[in-house]
Amino acid sequence: MNEIIAKLKDIVRVEQTRAKTYDVHIPVLYYGGDWVVVEITLNSDKTFQINDKGCAITNAQAIINDFDNINVNKFLTSVSEDYALNVSKANSLFLSDIKSEQLYSAISEIASASVELSKRIIEKGFEQSKRKIHNLVENKLMDIFKGDYKDKVTKDYELLGQSSKRYCIPFCINDSVKRYIEPVANNTNAIAVSHTKFYDIGKSPEYKREIVIDSFDNWETPNIDLLKPICESITPYNSIAA
């Protein structure tokens, strides 16, 4: 039993940061693997104030490339309303006047809401980056083919992978050897989706699988290396050729 208790103490770590304030490190994970940290402050009337220290936003900011273009207040408002929480001036989610018998449920509520807030912001960031690279590629293709764009390029081209799963290719250039153009945003979610898609579609002399990115300068080498085996080329959007 002592062994189990010792392990539990390692799992849920409590750290005193000020005279009446403690950080509780909870084995609930944000996207990317960081633990949720909930701050608990003992008030003079023996109630508690609990907040997420703004960690949800900090976590999302570390993952999203285009964070400044996201309306964070919109997500703070929606999550705080969904979970019946307050929002501080420092953009943290909090509950106040919590009695000792409510402490466990309040900590759980703050932790769950913090994870949800980070998730919603990150998903919005992924959506924006996907749309951005898609639009850059489309504009480049329209510039290349001009009046022949509709004849040369099929949008949302559907085909079956080797597993019989149906996939959608954003742009298919209709040459003698078809060119499947897959714009990929620089985030782990987009990379995983495109990797699965092109791996399942497989290699064929009838078509070329082409990954298009924003710029090599914005990408880490391991992510580029991950995509290389499942396509015939990786090209910045401004280097696409007819």
Shape: elongated
- What is the CA-atom radius of gyration, in angstroms? 24 Å
- H-E string: HEEEEHHEEHHEEEHEHE
CATH class of the largest domain: Alpha Beta
Straight-line distance between termini: 69 Å
Percent in strands: 25-35%
Uncertain stretches: none
Strand order of the biggest β-sheet: 1-2-3-4-6-5
Number of strands: 11
Structure characterization notes:
The chain is α+β, with helices and mostly antiparallel strands and 242 residues long. The chain folds into two domains: 2-127, Copper Amine Oxidase, Chain A, domain 1 (2-Layer Sandwich); 129-239, Trna Endonuclease, Chain: A, domain 1 (3-Layer(aba) Sandwich), CATH 3.40.1350. Helices cover 40% and strands 28% of the residues. It is built from seven helices and eleven strands. It has helices at residues 2-11, 55-63, 72-82, 103-145, 149-152, 188-201, 221-227; strands spanning 13-18, 21-29, 35-42, 48-51, 86-87, 93-98, 153-160, 166-173, 178-183, 207-213, 233-236. It has a six-stranded antiparallel sheet. Helix 6 (188-201) links the parallel strand 9 (178-183) and strand 10 (207-213). Helix 2 (55-63) packs parallel to helix 4. The longest helix is centred in the middle third of the chain and has 43 residues, at 103-145. It is elongated. The protein starts with a helix and ends in a 6-residue tail after the last strand. The model has no long low-confidence stretch (mean pLDDT 93).
